[in-house]
Every structure is written in structure tokens, then in C-alpha cells.
């Protein structure tokens, strides 16, 4: 494959940013919103709350003049975990929220106890009823000083969004540093919020009684850009990834450098070249700026082509190795030992019928299918479209041969 591919806006930035619309009755204008299923689900959930708006050509115009319903129903959000992001903003603006418990990827335990703990300390009563979380705040939320016991991306975002409307000055400690959190902070600042400490682990938020609408361009998706950068590492490929922020994938680029890739970055492009041989490496997933769990599966596919034994330790989620069994069906030699996968390369891959178990696993299987001899069929491919905008079209433009079969 060769050519240029453009990264879309970040799904995991656009999701909390759409949730932040709940905080104000003003009008919002978002650009570079990725046209992926998880975003469409969030848009529907907002319409259910009373939002008026439109979503086309990667642009969303939206406002919620009044909360007409405090309900985020299961039928709408069962495929997406991001519903939990509506809890903080809804209870902050409306004093009451009934949000379906999160769906989304089957990648292991995905607790939300720190989200709930923080909201409780702000004065919210939380209960659970038939797969819904009910949050009631009889008084306006009050400021807290809270340290997250472990780093959580959506936990940081949820409490941040509650704190911008709480009375007093909230201090959130041990916050997640992912660029998507920083992008949400930029949006909240544009809405008139008072937040200090962007890109640091401690955020100091002084609540405001109301916030305005805003215009915002979503940052590029670092997981999508990383996926295409990895695609460019397979022998013979020459891919230039556009609309990137190289710093967002700094850890990936270091890892690829260690495995012998030649990585070139410019202001907003990344290109990689393999000189034919991929060195085995040992990697462990960590919160940002460490190696992202969301690029673990795709790297695994690459390392099946390395000359020797690689190890990947998954530290964030406890069931994120489902792609390994599927890759083995293609001829890979991957063994699991607890939270470590042992990848013995180099193994030629052969086309097979595979099942996509989660979003990032499905991307790993697509990469496998591209280098396998013969035809690969990926079932349950809807997982892919939850988070990758037009991936088949983008890869076909680079020379791949992918057909999407609607069933
Ligand atoms: N955790 C707790 N308690 C909490 C919250 C988290 O114990 O209250 C634990 C989780 O069980 C997990 C770890 O902390 O072991 C990290 O979870 P985190 O909360 O950071 O994950 P998340 O916010 O649910 C977001 C992304 C994921 C991404 C992770 C890690 C969104 C909408 N989702 O999930 O994205 O893998 O951060 O970076 O931002 C994806 O896009 O494919 C995806 C799964």
C-alpha cells in the first residue's frame, strides 16, 4: 500500500465534548467530528435529552435550550460506553439524571466507581435501578478536593464537567493526561469555564453559575493515526499519515524506532518505512504519555512479522487479548501468559474467517487481513465502524482490497 491518508477528528475527544453540550443552553458548532457509530449514538442520546441540531459532513451544530428528559436509555446507548459521560453534566445542569449503565467494548472490567464516588462527594445521591444509574442532586453541586486512586480518562472528564458548574473551587488530583482531556478543557474554557492546570495531573476548577455555547474543532484521533502509522510499517508499504500531531503518538514512534522502523515527522504528517526487517520488542501499555492500550492489538499484528520473540504487557484492561486467538487462526504464534502476550515471529499469515470482538481488535484483524495470503473475512465488523471513519475506503485508496458486506 502506498499514498497519503488523513486522520479524522478524535472519537474520544468528540464524545466528552458532545456531553459538555448538556452544560449550557447555548449553541455549539463542532468541526472535524468523526463520522463513526459511537458519535452517532451520542448525538441520538442528546436528541433524546432535548437537543436540537444537525450532524453532517463532520460538522455538528447543536443546542439544548431545555432538558426535556433526564433519561439516557439503554436502547440508544447499548453499543457505546460513552453514555456514562452524560452523568456529570446532566446532574450538574439538571439535578437529576437516569443514565443506562455503560455498554461498549468487551475488553474487561471497566469500572466507574471513581466517577460515582466523586459525584457523591459533590452532593449527588446515586442509586442503581434496572441497568440504569440514577443520580439526584437536591442542591447545586459543591466543590470537592478529590484524588483519583488510579488514572481514568472518562472519570477525569466526568468530574471535570460536573465541577465547572459546582459551587466553589474543586481540586482534582491524579487526573488523566490524554490529549482528549486537554481538548475537552479547551472547549470548556471557550464556554467560559475557569480551569487551571491543563496538561497536568492536578486541575483546579472554579465553578460558574452558567456557561455559554462555543465553536470548537476536534483534535486529530491519535489512535486512528497510530493505526495507519503501524499499517505503514509492514514491508513494502509507504504511507504518509496526514492531519496528525506527532507528539500524541510519541511513545508509539519510539517503539517503532526500536523495532527498526524509519520514522519521519513533519509539522502535521508522519511517515514510516520498514527496511525489510522488523526487530522484536517488549512493550507495556500505560496511561498517556505511555504506550496506549488502544494501539496494543494493532502492534501485535505487526510483531507477528518481527524476526524473533516480542512481549506485550497489558496493564489497563484485563480482557484485551481477544485478537490474539483470531490472529493465531491466520497462522500467528501468540501465547498468553496472564497479562502478557508472547508473540513469536516471523509467521506468514493466511486468510481466514475471523470474528471482531472489540473496536481495536477489529483494526488488528484488518491489518492481519491486508498482509495475509488469500482472503480474510471479518465477521461482526460493525465493531470497526464504532471508531474508525471510512477505514475500508481509506485503505482501499492506499491500494488495499476491502469489501464491506451488509448483512
Ligand atoms: N477504572 C476504575 N474505576 C473507575 C474508572 C476506571 O477502576 O472509576 C479502571 C478501569 O477499570 C481500567 C482503568 O481504570 O482498568 C482505565 O480506565 P479508564 O477509565 O481510563 O478508561 P475509560 O475512560 O473507560 C477511555 C477510552 C478507551 C481507552 C481508555 C484507556 C473513551 C470514551 N474511552 O476509556 O477507549 O481504552 O480510556 O485509555 O475515552 C477505544 O477507543 O477503543 C477505547 C476503549
3D architecture notes:
It is built from 14 helices and 22 strands. It has helices at 11-20, 37-49, 74-77, 87-94, 113-121, 153-163, 179-190, 222-231, 250-258, 296-303, 322-329, 359-371, 382-385, 391-397; strands at 2-6, 27-31, 52-56, 59-63, 71-72, 96-100, 125-129, 132-136, 145-147, 169-173, 194-196, 203-206, 215-217, 238-242, 262-265, 270-273, 282-284, 309-313, 333-337, 340-344, 353-355, 377-379. Helix 1 packs parallel to helix 7, helix 5 packs parallel to helix 6 (153-163) and helix 6 packs parallel to helix 7. The protein is elongated and about 60 Å long. The mean pLDDT is 95.
The main sheet comes to: 4 strands, mixed
SS summary, helix count: 14
Structural class: alpha/beta
Shape: elongated
- Runs with pLDDT <50, length 5+? none
The total strand number stands at 22
**Beta-strand fraction estimate:** 15-25%
User: Biggest sheet: strands side by side, in what order?
Assistant: 1-14-16-15
**How far is it from the N-terminal to the C-terminal residue, by CA?**
28 Å
Helix content: 25-40%
Give the mean pLDDT: 95
Small molecules bound in the structure, each named once: uridine-diphosphate-2(N-acetylglucosaminyl) butyric acid
Rg result: 21 Å
Gist of the model:
With 407 residues, this protein is an alpha/beta fold. It contains 14 helices and 22 strands.
Amino acid at each position: 500500500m502506498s499514498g497519503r491518508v488523513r486522520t479524522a477528528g478524535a472519537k474520544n475527544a468528540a464524545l466528552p465534548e458532545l456531553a459538555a453540550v448538556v452544560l449550557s443552553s447555548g449553541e455549539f458548532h463542532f468541526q472535524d467530528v468523526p463520522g463513526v457509530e459511537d458519535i452517532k449514538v451520542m448525538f441520538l442520546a442528546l436528541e433524546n435529552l432535548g437537543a436540537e441540531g444537525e450532524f453532517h459532513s463532520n460538522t455538528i451544530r447543536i443546542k439544548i435550550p431545555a432538558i426535556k428528559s433526564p433519561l439516557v436509555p439503554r436502547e440508544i446507548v447499548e453499543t457505546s460506553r460513552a453514555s456514562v459521560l452524560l452523568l456529570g453534566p446532566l446532574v450538574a445542569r439538571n439535578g437529576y439524571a437516569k443514565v443506562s449503565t455503560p455498554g461498549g467494548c468487551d475488553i474487561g472490567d471497566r469500572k466507574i466507581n471513581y466517577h460515582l464516588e466523586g459525584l457523591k462527594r459533590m452532593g449527588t445521591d446515586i442509586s442503581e435501578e434496572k441497568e440504569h444509574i440514577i443520580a439526584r442532586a437536591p442542591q447545586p453541586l459543591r466543590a470537592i478536593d478529590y484524588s483519583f486512586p488510579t488514572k481514568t480518562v472518562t472519570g477525569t472528564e466526568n468530574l471535570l464537567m460536573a465541577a465547572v458548574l459546582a459551587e466553589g473551587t474543586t481540586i482534582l488530583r491524579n487526573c488523566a493526561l490524554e490529549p482528549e482531556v486537554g481538548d475537552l478543557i479547551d472547549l470548556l474554557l471557550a464556554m467560559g469555564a475557569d480551569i487551571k492546570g491543563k496538561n497536568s495531573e492536578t486541575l483546579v476548577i472554579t465553578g460558574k453559575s452558567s456557561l455559554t455555547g462555543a465553536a470548537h474543532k476536534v483534535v486529530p484521533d491519535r489512535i486512528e493515526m497510530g493505526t495507519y502509522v503501524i499499517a505503514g510499517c509492514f514491508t513494502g508499504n509507504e504511507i504518509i499519515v496526514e492531519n496528525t500531531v506527532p507528539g500524541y503518538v510519541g511513545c508509539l514512534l519510539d517503539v517503532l524506532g526500536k523495532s527498526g522502523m524509519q520514522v519521519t515527522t513533519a509539522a502535521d504528517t508522519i511517515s514510516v518505512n520498514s527496511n525489510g526487517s522488523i526487530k522484536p520488542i517488549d512493550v507495556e501499555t500505560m496511561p498517556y504519555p505511555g504506550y496506549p492500550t488502544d494501539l496494543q492489538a494493532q502492534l501485535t499484528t505487526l510483531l507477528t512479522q518481527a524476526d524473533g520473540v516480542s512481549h506485550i504487557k497489558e496493564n489497563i484492561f484485563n480482557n484485551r487479548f481477544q485478537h490474539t486467538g483470531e490472529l493465531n487462526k491466520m497462522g500467528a504464534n501468540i501465547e498468553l501468559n496472564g497479562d502478557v502476550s508472547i508473540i513469536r515471529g516471523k509467521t506468514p499469515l493466511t486468510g481466514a474467517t475471523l470474528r471482531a470482538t472489540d473496536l481495536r481488535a477489529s483494526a488488528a484483524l484488518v491489518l492481519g487481513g491486508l498482509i495475509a495470503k488469500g482472503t480474510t473475512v471479518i465477521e461482526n465488523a460493525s465493531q470497526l465502524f464504532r471508531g474508525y471513519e471510512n477505514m475500508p475506503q481509506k485503505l482501499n485508496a492506499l491500494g488495499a482490497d476491502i469489501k464491506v458486506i451488509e448483512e
